[in-house]
Design brief:
two-stranded antiparallel sheet, 184 residues, GMP Synthetase, Chain A, domain 3, alpha+beta, elongated, single chain
């Protein structure tokens, strides 16, 4: 069964004006990456907050928390593998999602920005607005896949980064959320 995972396309959430070619043609929308169901049901159930009836009783809170965190991270790794199988995906003119990975304690979406179609200076100028608009969209989403991703990130106590890289300059701009910023 194929499901859709919404990758919040920051360019479509108020970051218009980065591309001189498409400046007037943008509207608010999300971009989709299809994902297949291939991960272990126990991991998915745990990541969804469901307890396995065969779990042992009597573990310390710290042990349970560490195990839960580990289960969420494993579920996230499976999710990342599924998403990467569908990449690259063109989000809009000049912007392509190329990779989804874990770095340190963050899940990172990589976007390649075709310069000069997409100006990296404009992204820097709009960085805070992009962060605010995306956070609001994440808070109000009804999309089950996005909600599931956020639940996994919270359970794993991980942050989220949208990383934009210019094709010519190699310049990168991050729009990042700490684990605490994803608690809403």
């Amino acid at each position: 069964m194929i499901k859709q995972l919404i990758i919040i396309a920051l360019f479509a959430l108020g970051m218009t004006g980065c591309s001189e070619d498409t400046k007037q043609n943008k509207s608010q929308s999300g971009s989709h990456v299809e994902k297949s169901e291939g991960s272990n049901n126990n991991v998915k159930n745990k990541a969804a907050g469901k307890k396995n009836s065969s779990e042992k009783v009597g573990k310390s809170e710290n042990q349970e928390k560490a195990e839960d965190k580990s289960v969420y991270k494993e579920a996230l790794k499976a999710e990342i593998k599924d998403v990467n199988a569908k990449l690259p995906v063109k989000v809009e003119e000049g912007v392509t999602v190329t990779n989804f990975t874990v770095e340190n304690n963050d899940a990172v979406y990589y976007y390649m920005c075709e310069e000069p179609k997409v100006g990296m200076d404009a992204i820097v100028q709009a960085q805070q607005k992009m962060k605010e608009n995306t956070r609001q969209s994440l808070q109000t989403t009804n999309d089950p896949e996005t909600i599931h991703l956020l639940r996994m990130l919270r359970g794993a106590e991980m942050g989220l980064i949208f990383r934009y890289k210019g094709t010519k300059s190699g310049r990168t701009v991050d729009v990042s959320y700490s684990p605490a910023e994803l608690e809403f």
